[in-house]
């Protein structure tokens, strides 16, 4: 037994050496922080660290569930997450089905390029574009003016935050989201369409009975992944669209953790909030995966 | 195949809608470009929509004269370049042993990688750990946390697995070791996947916002996105180099617009050359995911 191990090391040692930097990276940047989540059950002290800080049980979770801020932030997060799943998620599917119907390849390329570009802009830039677009002398208010409406500072109005969040998500990522679906569509056997055409199926019926059903497993898998990230709305996105005037509707778990944890130093409390978020995310994926395994065999595992 | 009339209408409606969507997708960008090229008075009089009015480069002249903006620009350019190279090296070094069945820790490590992908650590212990290793207020935080991404690692490992065993065995008989194998044979044959991953890492490094926001205090190390965020939200920062505001041909809004476009230009310039790699990479990723 020992000789096999030493033989393994003699021949294959370079493989082990190569893996060392990556393993150190994973331990430092992924697993220590993951283990560090125990401070949600402790009173973290900078001087005593993750291990030696005293245990306090569920104290922080009790505080959190009674905190009026937390309930507001949690419901904001839930609502935005719900909008993202119901309104933003289907858009790339529809777009991909539509793009697939375009036969002229130059036009198709042009449309894809125009729709992909916003994906590569940072949220800082997208925020900058939106603040400009919705400013008092910006295009949005000029258009409102054509219809005789009073100008509004939409980025600073609570009522507009959620629609803007949803539209910005679609604008930035819906085009790019089609890439995965286009890949799945391009793998479809052309013979299916040929025989459908011989049977006299219209293009709409081909979409309904061939393209869409074949796309469905991919849609399902991506939907499951999205459900797992249900409460993960993207710190950059919300932070860069938020103004103090829209906190009541736009403050979410991520921005709240940033303020209470990083800025105010309530480390254990903010970790409890983060852990709460992770656990809910995990439960959601697990449940929906079970469900989808029951309905079809398109689950993640 | 003869298309019936309704078939043609169907195609035309879809094409029309998609062209409309593409235009709508570009309108916000166009409006910001126009603002940056219009005069202060035209903007104040609500004249500017999709094309510049009272065309002027004054906002642009002011922006490109800001040394602090260029400083952030070059800082971000260098962290992006260095970071991308390090990330590729790091990812290749880790993916290569993971693609070898004779590497005994492989399956355990792969499981760890998947766990790291599914369970995201709460942000506060992450912050405390990264601060604990000395990256707080340290410009290295712009590079080090980004040099390995589990998702990209899996893409590269999948790619390495396709290499034929025969080629490698022949090379080993010639006395070639694993390191030479990786750098002389495997990597030169992996240009496609390297280009794709370079882009994925590059975009993350160029656009990063959360790490500098959380970890950097010293304004000397502010990368481009943080600088632009300041320009967008803080009029005193953006106007700090301006003379008396009365006779100026620009205002906060035209300057902000110019700043935003300034940061977009590099992306739009490189984008057309790289689009095919992006798409290819997203497809490799989707097959795995």
TrEMBL record, chain A:
Residue ranges of the TM segments: 12-41, 78-99, 120-144, 164-188, 209-231, 267-288
The superkingdom of the source organism is Bacteria
Cell compartments where the protein resides = Cell membrane; Membrane
Ordered alphabetically, the record's keywords are:
Membrane, Transmembrane, Transmembrane helix, Transport
Instruction: Report the residue ranges that make up the ABC transmembrane type-1 domain in this protein.
Output: 74-288
The family database entries (Pfam families) matched by this protein are listed as: BPD_transp_1
Q: Give the membrane topology, semicolon-separated if more than one.
A: Multi-pass membrane protein
Q: Which PROSITE patterns match?
A: ABC_TM1
Q: Please give the family membership noted in the entry.
A: Belongs to the binding-protein-dependent transport system permease family.
Protein name, per record: Multiple-sugar transport system permease YteP
Species this chain originates from = Paenibacillus auburnensis
UniProtKB/TrEMBL annotation, chain B:
Q: What is its main location?
A: membrane
Q: Where is the ABC transmembrane type-1 domain?
A: 73-273
Determine the domain of life of the protein's source: Bacteria
How does the entry describe its membrane topology? Multi-pass membrane protein
Which PROSITE patterns does this chain map to?
ABC_TM1
Q: PANTHER family, alphabetically?
A: ABC TRANSPORTER PERMEASE PROTEIN MG189-RELATED-RELATED, POLYGALACTURONAN_RHAMNOGALACTURONAN TRANSPORT SYSTEM PERMEASE PROTEIN YTCP
Protein family (similarity comment)? Belongs to the binding-protein-dependent transport system permease family.
Q: Give the protein name, as stated in the record.
A: L-arabinose transport system permease protein AraQ
Specify the taxonomic lineage: Bacteria, Bacillati, Bacillota, Bacilli, Bacillales
Q: Which gene encodes it?
A: araQ_10
């Amino acid at each position: 037994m020992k000789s096999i191990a030493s033989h393994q090391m003699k021949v294959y040692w370079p493989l082990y050496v190569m893996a060392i930097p990556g393993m150190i990276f994973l331990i430092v940047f992924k697993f220590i922080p993951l283990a560090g989540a125990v401070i949600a059950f402790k009173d973290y002290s900078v001087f005593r660290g993750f291990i030696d800080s005293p245990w306090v049980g569920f104290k922080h979770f009790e505080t959190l569930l009674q905190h009026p801020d937390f309930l507001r932030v949690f419901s904001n997060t839930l609502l935005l997450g719900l909008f993202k799943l119901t309104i933003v998620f289907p858009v790339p599917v529809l777009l991909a089905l539509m793009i697939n119907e375009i036969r002229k390849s130059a036009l198709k390329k042009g449309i894809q390029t125009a729709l992909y570009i916003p994906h590569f802009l940072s949220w800082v830039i997208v925020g900058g574009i939106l603040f400009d677009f919705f400013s008092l002398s910006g295009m949005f208010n000029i258009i409102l003016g054509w219809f005789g409406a009073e100008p509004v500072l939409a980025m600073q109005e609570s009522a507009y935050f959620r629609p803007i969040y949803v539209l910005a998500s679609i604008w930035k990522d819906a085009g790019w989201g089609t890439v995965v679906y286009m890949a799945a569509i391009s793998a479809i056997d052309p013979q299916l369409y040929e025989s459908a055409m011989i049977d006299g199926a219209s293009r709409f019926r081909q979409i309904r009975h061939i393209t869409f059903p074949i796309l469905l497993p991919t849609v399902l898998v991506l939907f499951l992944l999205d459900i797992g990230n249900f409460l993960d709305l993207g710190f950059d996105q919300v932070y860069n669209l938020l103004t103090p005037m829209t906190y009541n509707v736009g403050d979410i778990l991520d921005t709240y953790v940033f303020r209470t944890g990083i800025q105010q130093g309530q480390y254990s409390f903010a970790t409890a909030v983060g852990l709460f978020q992770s656990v809910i995310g995990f439960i959601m994926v697990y449940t929906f995966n079970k469900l989808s395994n029951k309905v079809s065999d398109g689950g993640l595992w | 195949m003869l298309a019936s009339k309704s078939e043609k209408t169907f195609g035309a409606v879809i094409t029309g809608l998609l062209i409309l969507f593409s235009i709508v997708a570009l309108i916000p960008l166009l409006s910001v470009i126009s603002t940056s090229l219009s005069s202060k008075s035209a903007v104040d009089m609500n004249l500017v929509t999709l094309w510049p009015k009272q065309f002027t480069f004054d906002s642009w002249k002011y922006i490109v004269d800001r040394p602090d903006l260029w400083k952030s620009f070059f800082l971000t350019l260098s962290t992006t370049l260095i970071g991308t190279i390090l990330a590729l090296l790091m990812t290749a070094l880790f993916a290569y042993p993971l693609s070898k069945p004779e590497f005994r820790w492989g399956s355990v490590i792969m499981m760890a990688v998947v766990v790291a992908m599914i369970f995201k650590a709460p942000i506060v212990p992450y912050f405390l750990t990264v601060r604990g290793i000395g990256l707080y207020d340290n410009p290295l935080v712009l590079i080090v946390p980004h040099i390995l991404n589990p998702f990209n690692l899996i893409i590269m490992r999948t790619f390495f697995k396709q290499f034929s065993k025969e080629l490698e065995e022949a090379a080993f008989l010639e006395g070639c070791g694993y390191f030479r194998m990786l750098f002389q044979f495997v990597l030169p044959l992996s240009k496609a996947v390297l280009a794709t991953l370079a882009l994925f890492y590059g975009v993350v490094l160029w656009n990063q916002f959360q790490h500098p926001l959380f970890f950097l205090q010293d304004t000397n190390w502010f990368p481009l996105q943080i600088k632009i965020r300041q320009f967008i939200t803080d009029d005193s920062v953006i106007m700090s180099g301006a003379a008396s505001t009365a006779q100026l041909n620009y205002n906060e809004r035209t300057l902000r617009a110019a700043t935003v476009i300034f940061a977009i230009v590099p992306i739009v310039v490189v984008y057309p050359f790289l689009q095919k790699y992006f798409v290819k990479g997203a497809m490799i990723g989707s097959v795995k995911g």
